[in-house]
Amino acid sequence: xxxxxxxxxxxxxxxxxxxxxxxxxxxxxxxxxxxxxxxxxxxxxxxxxxxxxxxxxxxxxxxxxxxxxxxxxxxxxxxxxxxxxxxxxxxxxxxxxxxxxxxxxxxxxxxxxxxxxxxxxxxxxxxxxxxxxxxxxxxxxxxxxxxxxxxxxxxxxxxxxxxxxxxxxxxxxxxxxxxxxxxxxxxxxxxxxxxxxxxxxxxxxxxxxxxxxxxxxxxxxxxxxxxxxxxxxxxxxxxxxxxxxxxxxxxxxxxxxxxxxxxxxxxxxxxxxxxxxxxxxxxxxxxxxxxxxxxxxxxxxxxxxxxxxxxxxxxxxxxxxxxxxxxxxxxxxxxxxxxxxxxxxxxxxx
Amino acid sequence: xxxxxxxxxxxxxxxxxxxxxxxxxxxxxxxxxxxxxxxxxxxxxxxxxxxxxxxxxxxxxxxxxxxxxxxxxxxxxxxxxxxxxxxxxxxxxxxxxxxxxxxxxxxxxxxxxxxxxxxxxxxxxxxxxxxxxxxxxxxxxxxxxxxxxxxxxxxxxxxxxxxxxxxxxxxxxxxxxxxxxxxxxxxxxxxxxxxxxxxxxxxxxxxxxxxxxxxxxxxxxxxxxxxxxxxxxxxxxxxxxxxxxxxxxxxxxxxxxxxxxxxxxxxxxxxxxxxxxxxxxxxxxxxxxxxxxxxxxxxxxxxxxxxxxxxxxxxxxxxxxxxxxxxxxxxxxxxxxxxxxxxxxxxxxx
DNA sequence: TGTTAGCACTCTTGCGACGAGAGTGCTAAG
DNA sequence: CTTAGCACTCTCGTCGCAAGAGTGCTAACA
Lengths: 350, 350
Known about the structure:
Two copies of one chain form a homodimer. Chain A is of the alpha+beta class and 350 residues long.
């Protein structure tokens, strides 16, 4: 992203910037030249640090809350920090095994896995854990079931290769008795097993054109039912956990700021949109503060990584927190968690 | 509950108490004798009101934040108010049709119904809407499906008469191919259709004892699979919406109070327990402040009503808010919503 | 040219005082 | 039983003040 702006910085400038950001991340207080010089072992006087800080402020990496206060990082400053200043790029062995241990007990519980992942992420990060649940569109279907409810209302149940279950109510043009639904189900299953939904949709259209003559009444019906059942977008679901952690952050001591953020959390559809965009990035994504398009999200940072089932891209896991976030710890956490989830889902599907 | 304590109150005491509680509910400020006398058209002087207020305080219905402030209701005061002072016991026709209109578009969408009900409740009450999702144990089963996942892992999908879908992963002792699972599914369906899960469990045990000889290998397996699949508690799910509304309440201006409440909201299992208790009450339930057993819940009040599908008790809908809650408006809202949900679910199941 | 010490200046924060305002409790009279 | 009067209490906002932290600038130094 903004990575190559850093080439204009001298090594010492980089060190000072890193020191300030790290200090601010852990203290949440504007940091002054004096404490930088003292705490981070610089061999120069505070006055020198002050000059460097003034330069960094000119470059847009630091800001002052008011004239005679210390400096705090700007969103751009965090960006440079994340892209090229972070020191600890991975979890310790101990942390990894700790996460794995948390993982074990929930394995094989289907939906609960996602809930537990959010809990794990929020617990370790002391921020908000988030998971964009598997997108049914993309992953191979294992099985479909049709259950007649009442009148024209029927239930469609989809089971994916990764073991996720989705269902929706479909209203058909006519009343089809369960007997016939069973035959249709059988037929549909033979057609679509192992194929992801977005391909299934194409397939049904092709088949329909192909069999224009429609000698086979059952097939005709099955295709029609299939189109109804699989049409329309299958929206992803979002799991959040640890929102209460947010309230400990001093930047949200103001109840109104807090409130606007919680309103944003409740608008799941917007969150889905943001996470969907992260999904296309094909790797760990960081969105820092004002890089968020949505105004409500600008006090927040978001770190996400995609997870897979085999070759199927399923969704993302991530952490949401204030821009003043422990990037050095949370980035590897998210990365590792995504890998763990992928590994587990891949194993289970095979 | 504490209903008959009110008999010791004179009519004028009741009027004053009602006036104070209503005033406090809408203003959130301690209310003084002067404004009671003025705003609520009492024909006596503030001094007289003061005497009455002192009596009501002695009886435990009112309290003072500090010596020279107005009075605020105690939880006991609210209880009396709810049990015998509330004036407006029902929604207006306009409100009812407004709620019905909000309802229409989501009908027939299965799970989304519950989400929409929470949204509706929170929107109208400006508090937190809550729904305890259908308890699978109690409602008649329409259909069961078994899908083989991998190894010993199998997916059980239950569809209830009310159109709810539940699924869980079950690990069996042996690997059973899908072919045989299909036969088992058929057998199980013929056994359990139309029977609620808690009865199914008994039934399976009986059958097993009955067929001790076990000539029928398939039946033996089916019963065993059934026991695994339907055993264990099916925990209810909770939907919450509008938690951000809570932050507008002045009583939670203190961020720490706010936080402890949001932590409570995140502990869904405790919430399920509370709502489950409301379920046994067989009617509209109000839990006011300190009537809550759990410490974290004591700043909150809860109004719930059960909903049904035919004769099956499914779950509860409700509203959570601060003890200073618009009981007069929210009680009929919850009541009406529960009836609407029941009516809809009952119609759809037939 | 880069670094440093010194110094004046700015801005926040905490504290105590103070007065206004709201409301009570008590007493004594109607 | 009700009411007017009055002293008393407690909160809340404001103001001034001093302490503390940190900056920016200037001038001297290596």
